[in-house]
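Q: I'm writing up a methods section and want to include an example of the input and output format. Could you take the sequence below and give the corresponding predicted structure tokens, formatted cleanly so I can copy it straight into the document?
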Amino acid sequence: MININNVFVKYGDRTLLDRVNLVIVERDKVGLVGRNGAGKSTLLKIIAGYMSPHDGNVDRPSGSTLGFLHQEMSLPKGKTVMAETLTAFDEVRRLEKQIAELNDEMATRTDYESDSYMKLLENFAEVNDRFQLLGGQTMEADAERVLTGLGFKASDMDRLTDEFSGGWQMRIELAKMLLQRPDYLLLDEPTNHLDIESIIWLEKFLKDYAGAVIVISHDKQFLDNVTRRTVEVELGKIYDYKAAYSEYVDLRKERREQQLAAYENQQRVIADKERTINRFMAKATKTKMAQSMQKQLDKIERIEVEQFDTAAMNLRFPPAPRSGQVALEAKNLSKSYGSLNVLDKVDLKLDRGDRVAFVGQNGQGKTTLAKIIVNELTLTGGELQLGHNVEIGYYAQNQSDSLHAKLTVLETMENYAPAEMRTQLRSILGAFMFSGEDADKKVSVLSGGERARLALACLLLRPFNLLVLDEPTNHLDIISKDVLKQAIKDYDGTLIVVSHDREFLAGLTDRTLEFRDRKLHEHLGDVNYFLEKRQLDNMRDVEISQSSGKPKTAIAEAPPKKELSYEERKRLQRAISNAEKKVEKIEEEIEAVEKIMSNPEFYMQDDAAEITKKHADLKAALEDAIEVWELAQLEMMEYE
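A: Here is the clean output for your methods example:
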């Protein structure tokens, strides 16, 4: 096990970690959570031995292995993807050489009964077991399996790592680490550069991983699917919960409510005792009794309410000016980079108020199409027309990186703001957690999360009715993501959002466009409906089964269906939504009635027969509502 003992870290007058203690046991699956800047990455670096605390220590079993994926990693150049990945097996190759040497020695020895020969056999068995455990017999097959799971194609294996972006190089580092199978696997934001398919694959891998995993992530669904324990870092302290993220949120709320209630009760008791002591002190005959009561009161162990960080940005998009009925329309749109064709004669139409998610593997054209829409890239073929009075608000994937490093926070806002907004800039910055002297900080000293908040603040300075967001949750902590999601839900214009965060996308859009094989594949509903409809936990399964010649899924074999008009789609979608709401409402009513009927004395009541009949009627109504829902779903499926 790993023991973190009394670890203390302080920078200037700010205590980042205040005498924290933590134990990580074998096969632990731990989510490390907290606000940006709370000290999560620092704690992970201390556990990994990449930095030393100002006080305290970390004990790890001698001989144990540890892998640490962090944001500053870089690959050596000049190797192919497969060759670089196979460096994960350096220990296996050493063991392979050692096994060969031991085999040679055993072949020449004849002293089979000697102690030294027995020792030689034991040594061979240990080395061979370790060789098998680390995948010595299946190195290349394992490497290809993990690389494929993380999104690489067969054609990528012989390409040089130099040809790939930083995000893809990080995937290679992650693949190497997973193949090494360390006893303790430390991952700092592993999903940052992964698409939905790869995230789902990684979830499954980590869930079954034989060692301990400690992961920092702002992806709530990923944490729920991987971890069984949550460690919160907040204001220098850590709080340990034996639960995955969603359950931890409920437990934390419950703990804080209980703590506050206990504190308030104690304060009332103390106030009552102090009033009594004051009254007794005023009477000479009761002074001794008052002094005795005061001593007892002084001995009471006072309950303290833990401090916690409640700061959150206040984000609300400006009302959208009215646009024409058609927000944008693309016909036969194509985009190529040299000989690489990314989008091939795709069509897209958005009506005013549509809310669309772009999903799919990295490199399939999601960001390309977003940039074409906002006029940052030109078309190779086809046409794209914006509707009447359409004004675009655009948040790029690297928006925070485009901010001028030498400017202050306030100067950055002034560069984006129209003249009439200048007097409001400081109050807007305050709403985004830049208060007082923060406005005079240089952009260069801001953290990734602070830059992301500043970029969002700049976005709000002008009205727009077509909001295009490309990976807007990058660098945002979970609280900020929740605030952003609510603001997008309240936004009344047309929306396009590119994201790999399933929890963030859930319930946010009513159409999902999957980018695959240079085409757009449309699905009504949000990302969860899309994943369910595809009947895939890993969306890459269809591509793999088709390319390998295996039998295709029923979805892949389905014959082409008659085209459904936009109005018919909307009608069916409304019918499904209304049916779902009716089912939920009836189920709530049934639950309320059954709660009444669960009373042991229920049948003694005068209105028991009436309530029993109501229960039967509700059950029948539920069956009817479910049938309506099923019929609407079936009708939709016929066309999809």
